[in-house]
Amino acid sequence: MEFAAFYESARDDCLRAVTASLGSRQAAEEAVAEAFARAWARWPRVAEHPSPRAWVVRTALNLHVSWWRRWRREVPTPERFDDSGPDSPEPATLDPRMVAALRSLPLRQRQVVALRIFLDLDSRTTARTLGIAAGTVTAHLARATQALRAHLTSVTEEE
């Protein structure tokens, strides 16, 4: 597959997965754009990867972590960066209630949901992508599903 065809077919899925993991559409767009640029530069190698989409998502998440570490050293306050305020841009394709529910999850659970649900990767590929055991992926997904169900049920009952 050529890179252009890969980009067209994978762009939206990767952006949704990273947005779900990071909780910020803007940060996700920046990280995914850079990850795709890096994939293009290394396309012969990335094309051979078992899941090039997972490669892009993992690269985007790693880029965001690197950015956050640099930012944390440079800017002493606030201690925690969270752009999930009312003016935060929401992904157009996700229900705002789902975005709020995803933001309530710990980072690792959001990453597992993004890879397993949004990219439809199997547990083994998700585990390899995140550098954790397949059983850990299953446990995180179960906890995330339970938390999402509880959060969304309480939101529905309030309406």
Automatic annotation (TrEMBL):
A Pfam family hit: Sigma70_r2
Domain RNA polymerase sigma-70 region: start-end pairs: 7-73
Domain RNA polymerase sigma factor 70 region 4 type: residue ranges: 99-147
GO biological process, one term: DNA-templated transcription initiation
One annotated GO molecular function: DNA binding
Keywords: DNA-binding, Sigma factor, Transcription, Transcription regulation
Record carries keyword Electron transport: no
Coiled-coil ranges per UniProt: none
Assigned protein family: Belongs to the sigma-70 factor family. ECF subfamily.
Protein name according to UniProt: RNA polymerase sigma-70 factor (ECF subfamily)
The species this protein was found in: Paractinoplanes abujensis
